[in-house]
Here is the input.
Amino acid sequence: MNTPQSRERLALWLLWVTPALWSVNYIVARTAPGVVEPHMLALGRWALAGVILAVIARSELWRERRSTLQHGWRYLALGALGMLICGAWVYEGAQTTSAMNIALIYAASPVLIALGAVVWLGERFSWRQGLGVVVAMAGVFHVVVKGQWLALGQVQWVAGDGWIVLAMVSWAAFALLQKKWSTPLGSTARLAAICMGGVVILLPFSVWEYWQADRPAWSVQATVLVVAAGLLPGIGAYWAYGFSQKVLGASRVAASLYLGPLYGGLAAWLVLGEAMGWHHVWGAALILPGIYMASRR
Here is the structure.
């Protein structure tokens, strides 16, 4: 069935799945240092995703080729925001910061998206959604300060955190511009076009990395990281986010990013061995109901 009701049900379900797919990228990012360079990893990831998506949406892309080329600068801009800054720069930051920090910093992006959607896109935001954002953000801060609210001024930042902050702001712009710039392309074809734009932007940086004397030799592990990043947080997460945003609106979907600290924390704990404490549990107790309220009209 392809009714509005069924599409909305699918979009609401994807709100809970998308952050889990993105959490795979945190694992890839923390595993990549010493295995594959940041821009080369991002290029491989989005080239793979772009080829697969282009094959799936080949008929639509060919039919809409003129309008796509006419607005090619938009896809280059979205590629720079979503694939360079939110891709390679995240891998750059992961060299000096933790997977948990990446998840936590990204969790702040819904505030920027929701604010931009109201001010820039004219979306309405109900008091219940606003309350959900406040509750969820309280959970995020509880995790950030490890349950010690008086320690806000003592948060330690490293260079990697700065890269992730820039990526977080870029993600908000990426999400809002996708909503603002209308397109005849469906979710799959549009993401394929954005991937093409991202590959064009990433290519010169990747060539520069390739010719560096200290770059690691390509390996099976590097290939596995590229494939994992391309299929799960690449095709899976970006397509799901784009579909949900088209159906539900930018501000409602943005709230799903509050699940990032929960999923990212679980992934960091189970796979990377990063510590998880009670403050994560209590934070999740605020984040989860906040997500529910913020995703309802």
About this structure: The chain has a mean pLDDT of 84. The chain is about 75% helix and 0% strand. The CA atoms of residues 74 and 181 lie 8 Å apart. The longest helix spans residues 220-248.
